[in-house]
Amino acid sequence: MGARPRTVLVTGGAGYIGSHAAKALSRAGYRVVVFDSLGAGHRGAVQYGDLVEGDTADVGAVRAALQGHGAFAVLHFAAFLDVGESVRDPLRYYRNNVVGALGVLEAMVAESVRYFVFSSTCATYGEPIETPIPETHPQQPINAYGDSKLAIERALPHVERAHALRWVALRYFNAAGADPDGEIGEDHSPEIHLIPRAIEAATGGRGLQVFGDDYPTPDGTCLRDYIHVTDLADAHVKALESIAETGKSGAYNLGTGHPHSVREVIHTVERVLGRQVPWTLAPRRPGDPAVLYAAPQKAQNALHWTPRYADLETIVRTAWEWHRTHPNGYGDR
Ligand SMILES: NC(=O)c1ccc[n+]([C@@H]2O[C@H](COP(=O)([O-])OP(=O)(O)OC[C@H]3O[C@@H](n4cnc5c(N)ncnc54)[C@H](O)[C@@H]3O)[C@@H](O)[C@H]2O)c1
Q1: How far is ligand 1, taken at its centre, from the CA of residue 31, in Å?
Q2: Which tens digits make up the pLDDT trace of 95-112?
Q3: For the residues 61-76, what does the mean pLDDT come to?
Q4: Active-site annotation, residues
Q5: E strands within the chain?
Q6: What is the mean predicted confidence (pLDDT) over 208-236?
Q7: If you measure from the C-alpha of residue 97 to the centroid of ligand 1, how many angstroms do you get, rounded to a whole number?
Q8: Whose CA is nearest to atom 15 of ligand 1?
Q9: Average pLDDT of every residue of the chain
């Protein structure tokens, strides 16, 4: 690539995955500008660059941030991501995730910023018809969250043709773990993800519910693909470098390809913490597929990306280290 440091705008960079990507970018020699409403994010998570407070639907504010900082690329994380909430309040999801992303794209086109890396999700696939799931799997989301992400994936090739924008859509499976240096970690409220919820239950907080133990899986609980947040962050840097070098847009799964059951996660948390995880059985949630895991070869081959923290124990250890040392997260809620 050309002369460094080059500046990257990271929308949602005060959030969980965006803050880890900001760290990875900064380590790779980029200058980072975080653009975040702080609606769900944390000022304390912005440690690797400047913070611009704003909403991605505000095209003028995004344009000013791009122009003012001379950004050459955008990593777009800003979105809402609670599937259940998206079922109850779909309009809120379409507004924030679709209108927000379009705001960023409009601003990029207006400022001639050509590289866009988009946080997509395995929820764009819907109910899997085959596993592991390859990128060619049909995309038929079954909730507004997945559909709001797919709407942007669908828009990207059209924007590319019209405006020479190059893009990568990264379809994450289950993001988990925390920065191995312990500087940043996961602080969602309410927390909905399994590993932090199991840690919370083990340390005297809310008990954990397991949604269904009669799935057609070896132990009856759902199988998911947990991918370490630092590995996700590294994939973003590689994706950005790939489009800047090759000009080749595309969509990639980001997962390990090795699924783990809910029970396995609970046992791993118990082993790592040396404590029991109290849990109760609850009914299946509608729209929860039994098995979801990635065929990760495309990203590994094309982006030269291999997860470094792929084993579940390492993922749980880094998550535990963060929660142990930050029992109130960033302490701002
Ligand atoms: N966490 C996962 O397991 C997972 C899985 C698949 C995809 N994703 C996607 O990854 C991205 C990041 O997820 P996360 O777990 O870091 O979420 P997060 O809530 O921790 O971070 C999102 C950030 O975006 C900001 N934001 C939201 N809407 C905004 C807006 N309109 N304008 C400006 N800022 C806004 C929030 O304040 C927050 O800091 C999301 O796009 C999500 O859909 C996450």
Answers
A1: 21
A2: 999 999 999 999 999 999
A3: 98
A4: 145
A5: 7-11, 31-36, 50-53, 71-76, 115-121, 166-172, 174-176, 208-211, 223-224, 226-228, 250-254, 260-261, 279-282
A6: 98
A7: 9
A8: 16
A9: 97
